[in-house]
Design goal:
The protein is of the alpha/beta class and 122 residues long. It is 23% helix and 38% strand. It contains two helices and eight strands, in the order βαββββαβββ. Helix 1 runs antiparallel to helix 2. The two termini are 22 Å apart. The relative contact order is 0.22. This is VOC family protein.
Length: 122
């Protein structure tokens, strides 16, 4: 069971609005905030997401093969999340559409290059 996922950023002030917009669509607020770190989630809810400047002081880098998947409630929300990501500076990694018979997803990157997707099953 995953409790939360943390992604690195080199500019928290610039990156935070991207996640504020995505999580607003999902109905998930900021739940924790410190210098250099913000977390979005709900107590008792699903896995949260954190955004942080690396603790070791080195530059944040993208993990090759790493992706965070955001569970959407329907195909229309997948589309909205994809549109929100691109409108807030994200980059397309694959537009919304079916991937197989029961998986519908859109893929995008945040401002630091971290890969995410929005998906729905069924």
């Amino acid at each position: 069971m995953i409790g939360y996922v943390t992604l690195g950023t080199n500019d928290l002030a610039k990156a935070a609005p991207f996640y504020d917009a995505l999580t607003a669509e999902l109905g998930v607020p900021r739940m924790m905030e410190f210098d250099g770190f913000i977390a979005w989630g709900k107590e008792g809810g699903g896995a949260g997401i954190g955004l942080t400047k690396p603790f070791d002081g080195n530059a944040a880098t993208v993990g090759n093969g790493v992706m965070v998947a955001l569970a959407a409630k329907d195909k229309e929300q997948v589309q909205r999340l994809y549109d929100i990501a691109l409108a807030n500076g994200g980059a397309c990694e694959g537009p919304p559409g079916p991937r197989g018979d029961t998986f519908y997803a859109a893929y995008f990157r945040d401002l630091d290059g971290n890969k995410l997707n929005a998906f729905v099953m069924g």
